[in-house]
């Protein structure tokens, strides 16, 4: 998910004015390179594997970008102490096994 045309964003404009962010248009133009607009990442969907999800979540945590994971089942991914911005759409492997055991007994 990407929010387009961030240059219209008030906060982004203030960051540029204060020197916190440098606009690519201020860089010398490289051959065959054009910078027309900035885009801001506002969320990530994926990955389906727990190990990849964990790695991506640790990176995105620094920027407080939310991540939605459809299938990752590692129990520690659901912990709010690990990452407040990680949302899962399926239960952890532990919860799934407990539910199956309850169903079978």
Automatic annotation (TrEMBL):
It comes from the Eukaryota. Pfam families: ANF_receptor (PF01094). Keywords: Glycoprotein, Membrane, Receptor, Transmembrane, Transmembrane helix. It is a multi-pass membrane protein. Signal peptide: none annotated. The keyword Disulfide bond does not apply. The lineage of its organism: Eukaryota, Metazoa, Spiralia, Lophotrochozoa, Platyhelminthes. One of its GO terms (molecular function) is G protein-coupled receptor activity. Its main location: membrane. It comes from Protopolystoma xenopodis. Residues 41-103 form the Receptor ligand binding region domain. This is Receptor ligand binding region domain-containing protein. GO terms for cellular component: membrane. It is found in: Membrane.
